[in-house]
Design a protein that fits this description.
Number of helices: 1
Radius of gyration: 47 Å
Helix content: 40-55%
């Protein structure tokens, strides 16, 4: 029996050392896998941060381009203005008024029709105040700009 034991003992030792080597190798592989998963998580987090940064920069660039396009458009929009005096002969009184016409244009293309406003200047010729030199003074109201 002792002879069988001496023959089986090296096989048992080899089997035990093989099982022990398998367990150590398995633990080593699990540790390496855990490190790779940790690195992968870090890389994913970094990629998500970069993606958010790129999206924010892209959104800001689009907003800036939109702002510049609007500024260029508004630079080409202007208001044309015409003024002239109109005398109206009403029964019993002669009336003068300032006619102010405005329209909005894009470059040379009119975007609206002429908008006309009449500003009463004088209701009667005798109602005008006279200056020291004897000439009549007429105040012209300052027109307002629509866009600028």
């Amino acid at each position: 029996m002792t002879e069988v034991l001496w023959i089986a003992l090296p096989f048992v030792a080899a089997l035990g050392s093989g099982a022990l080597a398998y367990i150590v190798a398995q633990a080593k592989h699990e540790a390496a896998l855990a490190r790779e998963r940790e690195q992968l998580a870090e890389v994913r987090t970094e990629l998500l941060n970069q993606q958010k940064t790129v999206e924010d920069r892209l959104r800001a660039a689009r907003a800036e381009a939109r702002r510049q396009a609007l500024d260029e458009f508004l630079a080409d929009v202007r208001v044309e203005e015409r003024r002239f005096m109109r005398e109206l002969d009403a029964p019993g009184a002669r009336r003068k008024c300032l006619v102010l016409q405005e329209r909005v244009c894009f470059r040379n293309i009119p975007l609206s029709q002429w908008i006309e406003r009449e500003l009463d200047m004088v209701t009667e010729a005798a109602a005008l105040p006279e200056s020291e030199s004897g000439s009549r003074l007429v105040e012209v109201p300052k027109p307002r700009r629509l866009l600028r």
